[in-house]
Design brief:
By secondary structure, the chain is α+β, with helices and mostly antiparallel strands. About 60% of the residues lie in helices and about 5% in strands. It folds into three domains: about 15-55 and about 240-450 and about 650-789, Multidrug efflux transporter AcrB transmembrane fold (Up-down Bundle), CATH 1.20.1640; about 85-230, no CATH class; about 470-620, no CATH class. α12 (about 305-325) packs antiparallel against α25 (about 715-745), α16 crosses α23 and α21 (about 585-600) crosses α22. Keywords: Cell membrane, Membrane, Transmembrane, Transmembrane helix.
C-alpha cells in the first residue's frame, strides 16, 4: 500500500474489532440454531397476527388538536359552553322540489331531528333546529316584548300554521344561518360529546358517521329529501370509510413491487421470501399496536406501506449481496452468513436512522402526529428483527435459483459500461460542476420555498378532492347560506356575574368592531350583540337606544333570555363568534394578530380576552404549533441522524457527504409543495421526516460497501465502481420501484393520499440520485486527493 493510501483518514472506529466480534458471535448463534429461530418467529408471528385482527380504525377529536397550546387549554377549560361552536356537525336537510314550508317537509325534518337526537355521542342539550325548544323568536310590539318557539305548540301543518312558521323564522333572524336564503333547506346544528355516554370511551367517529349515514342520510333519501353533513366528525368518518380504498392501493403497491422484484432477480423463491417477510413485518407491527391499545387513525393508516417500503429497501440489499456471494461459488448457507456479516452493521444503522426520523415527530404536540411517530417506530423495531435475523435465515434455506444467478451475471456485466460512466462523478472535472449545480438547485429551492404556507390553502376539506361529496356539501352551504362554516371563537372572560357590566360590554363591543375591520371576518355573533338588540326591542325599536347603558338594571334586563350558547351560567364567559370567509392560514393569522394587538393596546383590567375555540380557532392553534415545530423537527432529524451516521463511520466528512444530498432533497420537496399550493399541515409534515429517515438508507449501504473496498486497498474510483456493481444496482432498483409503487396513489379518491404519494415519489427518486451521484462526488472532494483516485 502506498504512503498516500496510508495517509487516508481512518474511516472505521477503533472499536471495530469489538463490533465485528459481536457480529460474529451473533452470526454463529443465529445460523447454528436456524430451526429454533424460525420456530420462535413462527410463534410470535401467530400471536401478533391474531392480535392484528382486532385492530380497528380509530380517531379522536382531542388527538387531532394540540392540547398543550394555550388556545386549546383555554378551549378545554370552557369546553361545556364552547362545544356548540367547536366540535359540531351541520346537517342540512334539503327539499329538492319546492321549499321547506310544506307539511310533508316539516314532518320529515322533525323525524330527522329525532333520529339525530338519539344518536350516541350527540350533545342533546345543545342540539338546535327549527323543531328544538331553543329555536326562539322575539319581537317588539306596542304591548311590549313577545317571544316564542319558531314552530309553536299549536302548529298543525295547515296553511295558517305554515305562514306562522315562516313569520317566526323571519322574527328569529334564522335566514342565512339555520334556513337557506332561498328557503330550499334547513340546518340542524349537532354538537358532539368527546366521549360516548353509553360506554365512557372516546367517541368513535367512524361508528358515529356510519350510523348517521345509515339512519339519516340513506334512510331519508328514500323520503324525497337530500341530507348533507359538514363538520370535523364527518371529515374523519369519510377518511375512515375510505380505509378500504387505502387497503386496495396498498395491495396494488405490494403487487407492483413484487412484480418488479421478480423481474429484477428472476427468482420466485427469493421474491416470495422477501415479500412475505415484509408483509410479516407489517402484520407484527399491527399486532403490537393492538396489544398496546393503539388504533389506526386516518393519517397513520398509511404507515404500514412505509414499513413495507423500508423492508423492501433492506431486503433488496440482502438479495443482491446473496447473488454476488453465490456467484463466487458460495452455498446458500455460506452466502447468507457472509451477507449477514456484511449488512448487519450498516443495516442496523440504517434502520436506527429510520427510527430517528420517525421519533423526532414526537416534538410536535399534536396527538395524531405523535401516534404516527409511535406507530412507525414500532414498525421499524419489528423490521430490525425480521430483516436482520429472519430474512437471512430464510435465505440460507431457499438461496437463489440458477435462473436468478444467470440474471445477476447478465445484469452485472451488461451494466458495467453504465457503472463506469457513473463512477466518473468522483473525478474533479465532473464532481466540481456537479456540486456547483447542486448548489444552484439549493438556491433555487430556497427561493421557491419562501412561498410555502402553513395550514390549509383551499376551501372545504383539503383531504378530499374538490368533487368529493363532502366538499360538494360544503360548497352548497356556502352558496345558499350567509353564515360561514369557519367559526373563530374568542372567549371574553369576566369575574362571575360581571359579564353584563357596562365596562365589560363596552370593551367587548370595541373588540368586535375592531375585528369586523379585519379582512376575512364577515360577521360577529355574541352576547353583546344580543343585549343591544334586547335594549332596542325594549325601547319601542328605536335605533337610538341600541347602545349599552350605565344603568346596571337595564343591562341585567337585556341579558335575560339570551341563548345559553352566548354565555355560561355564571355570567363569566361570553364567547364572541367570528364567521370567516375561509380557514386559510393567512386569514387565521390576521385574526390572531388583531386580537393580540387589541389586548396589548387596551387595558383589559379584570377582563380577559382569551383565544381560541371554534373550528377555525382550533385550526389556528394547530397552524401555530406546526409552524413552530417544523424547523425544530427538521433540525432534530438532521442532527440526530447525522450523529447516527457519524457513530457508524466516525468521520464528519463522511457524515456531511451522506447528509448533504438529503438536505437538498428536503429543500426541493418544500419548493415543490410551495409550487403545487400544498401547505405544511398534519397530512404533509410527517412526509419530510419520513423521507429523510428512509433516504439515508441508500447512502449508508453504498458508502459502507465502498468503505470495505477502500480497506482492501482499492482507490476511490475503483471502490465506488465495485460498490455500484453490487449495492448500487439495488439502491437504484429500490428507489425506482418504491417510487413507482407510491405513484399509484395519484389515482386515490383521497387528495391527501395523492399528495403524500407525489411527495414520496420525489423524495425516493431524489434521495436515490443523491446517494448514487452527489454523495460520492462530495465524498471524493472531501476525503481523497488526486493520488488516491
Amino acid at each position: 500500500m502506498t504512503a498516500q493510501q496510508n495517509s487516508r483518514p481512518t474511516l472505521r472506529p477503533l472499536k471495530k474489532s469489538t463490533m465485528q466480534h459481536l457480529v460474529d458471535r451473533t452470526e454463529r448463534a443465529l445460523f447454528h440454531n436456524r430451526l429454533v429461530v424460525l420456530l420462535m418467529f413462527l410463534v410470535v408471528s401467530v400471536v401478533l397476527g391474531i392480535a392484528a385482527l382486532s385492530l380497528r380504525p380509530d380517531a379522536s377529536f382531542s388527538r387531532m388538536i394540540p392540547t398543550g397550546h394555550p388556545f386549546i387549554v383555554n378551549y378545554l377549560k370552557f369546553e361545556d359552553v364552547l362545544r356548540p361552536q367547536s366540535n359540531v356537525l351541520r346537517v342540512l336537510v334539503e327539499a329538492p322540489q319546492g321549499d321547506i314550508l310544506t307539511k310533508e317537509f316539516l314532518e320529515t325534518l322533525r323525524e330527522v331531528n329525532d333520529k339525530i337526537f338519539y344518536l350516541p355521542g350527540v350533545d342533546r342539550g345543545n342540539l338546535k333546529s327549527l323543531w328544538t325548544p331553543n329555536a326562539m323568536w322575539a319581537e317588539v310590539t306596542t304591548e311590549g316584548l313577545r317571544a316564542g318557539r319558531v314552530i309553536p305548540d299549536t302548529y298543525d301543518g295547515g296553511p295558517e300554521s305554515l305562514a306562522q312558521v315562516k313569520q317566526n323564522i323571519q322574527r328569529a333572524n334564522l335566514i342565512g344561518s339555520y334556513v337557506a336564503n332561498d328557503f330550499k333547506s334547513v340546518v340542524i346544528r349537532v354538537p358532539l360529546l368527546e366521549s360516548d355516554p353509553d360506554t365512557g370511551k372516546p367517541l368513535d367517529y367512524g361508528a358515529f358517521t356510519q350510523a348517521l349515514e345509515q339512519q339519516v342520510r340513506e334512510h331519508f333519501a328514500d323520503q324525497g329529501v337530500n341530507i348533507r353533513v359538514i363538520g370535523f366528525a364527518q371529515i374523519i368518518g369519510d377518511l375512515l370509510a375510505a380505509a378500504t380504498d387505502i387497503a386496495l392501493f396498498f395491495a396494488i403497491t405490494v403487487g407492483l413491487i413484487s412484480l418488479m422484484l421478480y423481474l429484477y432477480c428472476r427468482c420466485w423463491r427469493s421474491t416470495a421470501v422477501t415479500v412475505l417477510t415484509c408483509l410479516l413485518t407489517v402484520a407484527c407491527q399491527l399486532g403490537l399496536l393492538s396489544l398496546l391499545g393503539y388504533g389506526l387513525d386516518p393519517y397513520s393508516i398509511l404507515v404500514p406501506f412505509l414499513i413495507f417500503a423500508i423492508g423492501i429497501s433492506h431486503a433488496v440489499q440482502n438479495i443482491n449481496l446473496m447473488m454476488s456471494e453465490m456467484g463466487l461459488g458460495a452455498t446458500p448457507l455460506e452466502a447468507s452468513r457472509r451477507t449477514f456479516r456484511a449488512l448487519f452493521i450498516p443495516g442496523t444503522t440504517a434502520l436506527l436512522a429510520d427510527a430517528v426520523g420517525f421519533i423526532t415527530l414526537l416534538v410536535i404536540d399534536i396527538g395524531v402526529i405523535q401516534q404516527l411517530a409511535i406507530t412507525a417506530s414500532i414498525g421499524v423495531f419489528v423490521a430490525i428483527f425480521t430483516k436482520m435475523f429472519l430474512l437471512p435465515v430464510l435465505m440460507s434455506y431457499v438461496g437463489v435459483s440458477p435462473r436468478g444467478m444467470q440474471q445477476q451475471h447478465k445484469r452485472t456485466h451488461s451494466s458495467w459500461p453504465i457503472f463506469r460512466r457513473v463512477a466518473a462523478v468522483v473525478e474533479p472535472k465532473v464532481a466540481v460542476p456537479l456540486i456547483l449545480f447542486s448548489l444552484v438547485l439549493l438556491g433555487f429551492g430556497y427561493h421557491a420555498r419562501q412561498d410555502l404556507k402553513i395550514g390549509d390553502l383551499d376551501k372545504g376539506a383539503p383531504e378530499f378532492r374538490p368533487d368529493a361529496r363532502y366538499n360538494q356539501d360544503n360548497a352548497y352551504l356556502l352558496n345558499h347560506y350567509t353564515t360561514s362554516t369557519d367559526v373563530f371563537v374568542v372567549m371574553f372572560k369576566t369575574p362571575q356575574e360581571q359579564c353584563a357590566r357596562y365596562a365589560a360590554a363596552d370593551l367587548a363591543n370595541q373588540l368586535e368592531d375592531t375585528l369586523l375591520e379585519v379582512e376575512g371576518v364577515e360577521s360577529v355573533q355574541s352576547l353583546y350583540r344580543a343585549m343591544r338588540f334586547n335594549i332596542l326591542a325594549r325601547n319601542e325599536g328605536n335605533p337610538k337606544w341600541a347602545e349599552f347603558s350605565r344603568d346596571q338594571f337595564v343591562m341585567n334586563n337585556a341579558r335575560s333570555g339570551v341563548a345559553s350558547e352566548f354565555v355560561d351560567p355564571n355570567c363569566s364567559v361570553a364567547p364572541i363568534s367570528l364567521y370567516l370567509a375561509d380557514h386559510k392560514a393567512e386569514t387565521l393569522t390576521r385574526v390572531v394578530n388583531a386580537i393580540e394587538a387589541f389586548s396589548q393596546q387596551h387595558d383589559t383590567g379584570e377582563f380577559e380576552i382569551l383565544q381560541a375555540a371554534g373550528n377555525a380557532g382550533i385550526e389556528a392553534a394547530t397552524n401555530i404549533v406546526i409552524k413552530h415545530s417544523e424547523k425544530l423537527m427538521l433540525i432534530l432529524v438532521f442532527v440526530i441522524i447525522s450523529l447516527v451516521v457519524w457513530w457508524e463511520f466516525k468521520s464528519l466528512r463522511v457524515t456531511f457527504a451522506l447528509m448533504a444530498p438529503l438536505y437538498l432533497s428536503t429543500v426541493l420537496c418544500e419548493a415543490v409543495m410551495a409550487y403545487m399550493g400544498l401547505g405544511v399541515k398534519i397530512a404533509t409534515l410527517p412526509v419530510i421526516a419520513l423521507g429523510v429517515g428512509i433516504g439515508v438508507d441508500y447512502g449508508i449501504y453504498l458508502y459502507s460497501r465502498m468503505e470495505g473496498f477502500l480497506h482492501q486497498g482499492l482507490k476511490f474510483r475503483a471502490a465506488f465502481f465495485e460498490a455500484l456493481k453490487t449495492t448500487g444496482t439495488s439502491v437504484a432498483f429500490t428507489g425506482v420501484t418504491l417510487a413507482m409503487g407510491v405513484a399509484t396513489w395519484s389515482f386515490s379518491a383521497l387528495k391527501f393520499q395523492a399528495d403524500m404519494g407525489l411527495l414520496l415519489v420525489l423524495l425516493f427518486i431524489w434521495n436515490m440520485v443523491g446517494a448514487l451521484i452527489l454523495m460520492p462526488a462530495i465524498a471524493s472532494m472531501l476525503l481523497y486527493n488526486k493520488n488516491t483516485r
